[in-house]
Amino acid sequence: MNDKKLRLALVGKDVSKSISHKIHAFILREWGFVCEYEAISVPQTEFDSAMRRLIGDFDGFNVTIPYKRDVMGYLDEITGDAFDCGAVNTVVTSSMTGYNTDGVGFLLMLRVAGVEVKGKKVLILGGGGSGRSSASALKKAGAEVFVYQRRREKLLELCGQLGVTPIDDPEVGGYDILVNCTGVGMHDTEGLSPVSKKAFEGVEYCVDLIYEPAESEFLRLAKSQGKKTLNGASMLFYQAYFADCLYIGRRSSDEEAKTLYQKFLQMK
Fold first, then answer.
1. Model's pTM, two decimal places?
2. ∠ CA(28), CA(62), CA(156), 5° rounding?
3. Exposed (0-12), middle (13-18) or buried (19+): which is 169, by Cβ within 10 Å?
4. Is-contact 132 162, C-beta < 8 A?
5. Dihedral over Cα of 35, 87, 107, 167: its sign
6. How far is it, in rounded angstroms, from Cα 164 to Cα 3?
7. Looking at the DSSP assignment, which residues form a beta bridge with residue 7?
8. Are 63 and 73 in contact (CB under 8 A)?
């Protein structure tokens, strides 16, 4: 790797609308680096060949839906939050190590928005990589965490691993915070919500990790019920910031991350 140049990528089933390339290029440029960043959309049948290319041609890469668990089988080491939650979103190819920056990015997003999670009942919708990392981070932050996903066998496995509570019906309400980690509401499911209005009863804050569209149907429904809402735009930036720190061996700082995000918003 050139000391001041990195070749990075994002791999997922459909990353056609991702703005990750803009975020990583901006952050690394602020630090004096040149970043070439490629978005790679691949179906499951082509994931193995995509991984061989990523490992051979890139300094590091990010992983999104639905490959945050699949990528683990290709790595020599899985560490930190990635080990704890069983999902990888960042790979440093020089050491073939997998990390997860979703959890720290998620919690920073909530702190900046003034969302208090300690002691709160939080329902996570979706048990994929983002759901796992969010549930793990929230539990560590002192929340009482509940998770719903349609496949009960997978749900029970996830909750057993993370030490959180499975639920069978996400529509009963009564939670303080509701978090959509399903991906329902973007791409070919845009305009759909994973839950109906009933689910928002008693809820104070609704968070959707989707950032495109800026207001998903889930958030629109929540807002119509008078709930406070938050999309995943700042989390996307923060998890990228923490990933870039890993790529170049830089010590991370919440204050630096917030300052860079504000500067990024002003440039858009």
1. 0.93
2. 140
3. exposed
4. yes
5. positive
6. 43
7. 36
8. no
Active site residue 258: no
Q: How many CB atoms neighbour CB 38 within 10 A?
A: 16
Residue owning tokens 């920056």: 101
User: How does residue 268 score in pLDDT terms, banded at 50, 70 and 90?
Assistant: low
pLDDT tens string 43-102: 999 999 999 999 999 999 999 989 999 999 999 999 999 999 999 999 999 999 999 999
- How distant, in Å, are the alpha carbons of 45, 75, 134, 252 from that of 172? 38, 40, 21, 40
Question: Rounded CA gap, 136 and 114, in Å?
Answer: 20
CB-CB neighbours of 115 under 10 Å? 18
Identify the active-site residue in 4, 5, 17, 68.
Answer: 68
What's the one-letter identity of residue 168? D
Q: Which H or E run includes 258?
A: helix 254-267
